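Continuing the batch. This is chain 6 of the set; chains 1 through 5 are on the previous pages. Same settings as before, nothing changed between runs. Recording input and output for traceability.
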Amino acid sequence: MSNYTHVQFISWEIYTGPNRGPQPWSMGKDGTSYTGIGEENAVDNRLDFEGQIADITERLQFTYKAIEKAHELAAKNPTTLKVFMAPEFLYRGKGGAYIHDVINGWTKQPPDEFKLTGFDRFPGLFGYLMGFAADNNFDADGRYLNRFKDWLFVFGTAISASFPARLKTNGGWVVDSTQMGEIYNTALIQRGGANIPRDATVYASRKRYISGIDFIKSQYKAKGFAGDLFDPNRTVDPADRLDLEVRFDLEPNEINREGSATFTINGINDGAGQPIMFGLEVCLDHGISTPRNPQPRLWANSTVYAIGKGVISHDDGRVYTCGIAHTSSASPTTFTQDKNNNPGRWVDPPLWANSTVYAIGNVVFSPDDGLLYTCGIAHTSSASPTTFTQDKNNNPGRWVPYRNPWGRIRTADKWVKIQLVPSGGMNLTPASIRLLPAAGPTPHSYAFNCDGLTTLWDPSLGYQYGAHTQIWNGANGAVPVPPENQLINASSGRPVGNTSVAKVDGDILTNWVGRIGEMRRIHASDLWDLGSGYVRVMQEMPL
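Output for chain 6:
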């Protein structure tokens, strides 16, 4: 058990997006493929099990190089907690996702339906990563090196899928990729150190909200992966997906440890000996969330209302949206009096209209059913006489049941000491930041974003493919966040004050997996389109 007075954030700034080929920058364009190792001209890279194991093994070697580079630059003070984070999609493979079994590994022989030989007792991706964090190596005197005992690792995310098995006509089982499968986007968090129990020092949580850039449309339509929940051609759904006509996705689950957006890790405490509360929101989970009560209810006196909350007025029966967080006036004040006496508290959500331009996140009131909807795809609505319901049904994804324009932690009404946001195309969202203490300044709590798709906006360069790091503190929900609270905003290895940057080795000479005695030189660019990236180590910050 350790008490920490300071924290040092470390990001691996590496591009983890798809191979976009020669296309110019455009978030609206599909990529061309996924970068990774696999059998050449494979019929289906999703079922290339040996290739997936080779891909994982090679990515792990670069992961270890990044960790070692970070260790060289990091503080050695035992009262400083080092938090190492990589972006979303760090591990996904040439087929867009690994078969789930190679994530978890196996203790004896591989599953029969994989038809693999020479891969007994494979620890799996997560097993290897736990070993990295443990650092069970010895010094010259036979003692554990234990270099990472004051570290917490957030290993980005891994994309995996599982499919049913089917019995072949000539006997034996094979994976049946023609059937509906399940897909997972999982973040692994692991406390470092040798000889510590693994059950309470490891945490895993899956991404809840799948965005349009999670999978290449041209690939998942042909291959069967779902990157767009609204695509009628999808053949793989997230395991925890619910009916989209009922609600957009699962509400935050803060009761069960598994999947919660907030957690503690045994042995990681603050200077007073209290467990440090962490929050985890993978990419879009930081930007949107399902309201606990998704649709408007009748307005009430003496009630706390958050920005974006919809209510129905007793006075005119119309729907209004909260524009300023507040507690409504006490009885006998009416809704109209409360609204008029407090300009900005309540605003009219616009009624949907034909031939109107809508941006992602716009909220409208449907004239057909009286409910609120959020725009999911930027578009111009259909011309008259098309109704809202017809426009919605004819264009899946344009409109989804109303969702909050902030993340899971805020919707769950939780507050954390360190808010972690591994992402692939997301910046820190001011309205989503929820740092302790809940009331007042938060100079010693931090939101930490490590993104693997884009650089931050630059007036002269715009956005570019790449990666970025953000660390903010001090302003809960302030829009915009004051510049003095934006401690670090850095992109793709570029020099920034109060940080140290090192290039991760881009080439490694290694054994060829499954081929004893054969050596090959692997290149990070064979695994991630822009190579091995950079490690950025921030200065120590007080907790």
